[in-house]
Each structure stands twice: as structure tokens, then as C-alpha cells.
Amino acid sequence: MNSINEWMVPVGKSRPGSQAGHEEQPSPDPVPRTSPPTVNSAMVVAAVARASFWNRVIAQTLAVGRWPLYPGPPRARPLPYFVAMDPEILVAPPALDSVRRRVDEALASFLQERREAMAVIAPEAAEMVDELRRVVAAGGKRIRPAFCYWGYRAAGGDDGEPIVRAAAALELFHTFALIHDDVMDESETRRGEPTTYVRFAGARAGEPDALRFGRSVAVLIGDLAAVLADEALIGSGFPSERVLPALSRYALMREEVAAGQFLDVLGAGGTPSADRIALLKTGAYTVEGPLHIGALLAGAPPELLAALSRFARPLGVAFQFRDDLIDEGEDAVPRPVAAEVNRMIDEARSAVRDPAIPEEAAEALGSLAMALALPEG
Predict the structure, then answer these.
(1) I need a surface site. Which of 248, 298, 307, 366 has the fewest CB within 10 A?
(2) Distance separating alpha carbons of residues 240 and 234, to the nearest angstrom
(3) What is the Cα gyration radius of the chain?
């Protein structure tokens, strides 16, 4: 058997996907700083925790119409060490934008095919695929498919539909992780839309089991996304001798994500280190895992995988801290924390200038890393 059955992507139009913490309230006349204080990962996590607290305070304020801890809302001028943030990459570099359009086409085609197949198995269950289509269409950077694609190109792989399909599989795995994460975090919105469990709980609004129903359906739909991710990768169109090593790395990536998520839940007690959680929970499947999977689909040697890891590991940790700050903060990121995230991004960009990584791929990966940088001033 020379290849594994592939699913076809018809030609068509693409459909792209449509905070901060502070130590204490500053005095009216804060002493200006000439340089930001140094930070480490523990300080980043502390900033995220403080931001989470203030978000809850703000939410309570909005709910009851008054500031719950003080006689009135603070009237001080804006905090001096904070800068505005945007949760998405504002201008996608070509290395991301070109891959994103093609991956969106592939996802739309594949999910339509799987919906039709599900409707034959059980017409009622086709709604599960419809929900996946809704979640995918709500947006997203497609950064994981982009890293998969450029890992493949770094290993000398030729451009073609098989690598786009394989990259799309990683977006489906990410969708699984998001749906389950929203259940665990009790998040009500995702990308400006109701989360899956909230949407299905709303379908039974007023019934005593509404929330349980919504959570149960969300778990099932997340599981389906994981199954379809496997199917998409296996059926991407690569020869079996290339797919099998990639599948082995894909399995390791999923184990690392599960371990990282468990440590994150366990971390409520403050035991696991922030770096360790970030490396497993997000770094493993945002940067390093996708890069390795793509590279293995092109037959990458061990020395290239090692070079890609030197780029991926600091960038993966930076990505996790960046997302935590955006999720937990309101509209700003403390400048010292932004500087630490950017330092890790610079470390990754230096590592990608490795002789083992071809120039075109190195430039593309460097631009992807730079697109994640935070404003500091």
C-alpha cells in the first residue's frame, strides 16, 4: 500500500475566520521609570492571577451597578506602565495568511463531507458536525496549521494539497481542545460567540438538566473533533511511510497536551511550575508538535527536528503567557511582562537562524514568531 486514502478538496472560494495585572493602585503622581523592571515566568503568572481577580471585581461592579470594594470607582488617571492589547494578530504575515486561506478551504470541504457521512449514520447527529463548522468559522489565527506547513517546507517538502490537509487536521485538534477547555473553565463565549456547552444548554433553558445537557453534548462534540482530526491526518494523502512517523509524533503531542492541562488544573494549589505547564499545555501543540509533524511528513532527519525544537520551545512558552494575559486581562498588558514575552520571542527568532533550516522556511518561521510580539511602549 503506497498511500493512505485521501479526502479531496474541491476548488472554491476560501472562507477565512471572520489584562493585565498590577501590584497595587498607583498614587496620583507615580514616580516615572526610565527602564522597566525585570521579570521572570513566576511574575508573569502572578500578573495573570491578579488580572483574573480584577476581572471578577469588574464583572461584579457591572452586575450590581457599584464598585464592590470601595465607596466609588477609582477616578485616577490611566495606569502609567500599561499598553493597549489586541487579542488577535492585527496584520497576518504572508507566511500565515496564505496558509490560513487554504486551510479554511480544506476544513470547509472536509467537514461538509463528514456531515454528509454522519447524516447517513444518524441524521440527528449531523448537528454535531454543524457545531464544529460553527466553531471553526467563528475565527482563529490558524497558527498551528501554519507551523505544520512551514515545518514541512523546512524539511524540503514540496507545496501541495496533502500538507494543507494535514495542517487542517491540527486545527481540528485545536477545536477539540477549545471546546473541552471551555467546559472546564466555564467560559461563556469564545471568539465573540457562545461556547458550545452554553449554546446547547440554552436549547434546554428552564429545564433542570440544561447545564448538564450542554456540558455533556460539548464533551461529545469535542471528542468528535479529535476523531475527525485523526481521520484528516491519516487521509491527508501522504505515503504511509511518511504518515506513520507523523502519527507517532502526533500521539506524543496529544499526551503532552493532556499532561499539561492536568498540571494546569492541579496548579490551583501552586505546585507545578509555570514554565512546565506552558511548555506542555500550549508549547507542545502550538509550535513544536505542529513543526515536527510537518517536518516528519517530509522525512526530516533528527538534526532538523532538534533545530526546530530550539526555535519552538521558547516561542511556545511565550505564546502561552501571551494568551493567558490576553484572556485574563482587560485591555492592557503590563510593559515588563510584555518585555519578557518578547524576550522569549527574540530567543526563538535567533534560534531559527540555524544552518539546518532552509532560508525560506527560516524567514517564514521568524515572521510567524514576530507576529506574536506584544507592544511595550
Answers:
(1) 248
(2) 9
(3) 22
In a domain, 11, yes or no: no
- What is the pTM (predicted TM-score) of this model? 0.75
- At 147, list the grid cell: 507551523
Grid coordinates belonging to 255:
499526551
Q: How many domains does the chain have?
A: 1
Residue 184's closest CA among 143, 210, 222, 137? Answer: 222
Report the largest interatomic distance among the alpha carbons of the chain, rounded to a whole angstrom.
74
Which cell is 330 given?
Answer: 482587560
CA dist 157 and 151 (Å) reads: 9
* Residue pLDDT, tens place only, 256-274: 999 988 888 887 555 556 7
Asked whether 281 and 320 are in contact (CB, 8 A), the reply is yes
| Residue-number span of the structural domain to which 84 is assigned | 41-105+142-166+227-371
**Residue spans of beta strands (DSSP E) within the chain:** 82-84, 189-190, 193-194, 332-334
Cα separation, 87 vs 192, whole angstroms: 11
**pLDDT tens digits along 6-47:** 443 333 333 344 333 334 444 444 444 444 444 455 454 445
**Distance in angstroms (rounded) separating the CA atoms of residues 94 and 271:** 41
Asked if the model's pLDDT at residue 295 lies above 70, the reply is: yes
Residue 134 lies in a domain: no
Kindly report the CATH number assigned to the domain that includes residue 364: 1.10.600.10
Q: What is the DSSP string of 233-264?
A: HHTSS-BHHHHHHHHHHHHHHHHHHHHHHHHH
83: three-class secondary structure by DSSP: strand
Q: How many beta carbons lie within 10 A of that of residue 40, not counting itself?
A: 11
Least confident stretch, 43-52, 120-129, 162-171, 251-260: 43-52
Residue count of the chain, please give it.
377
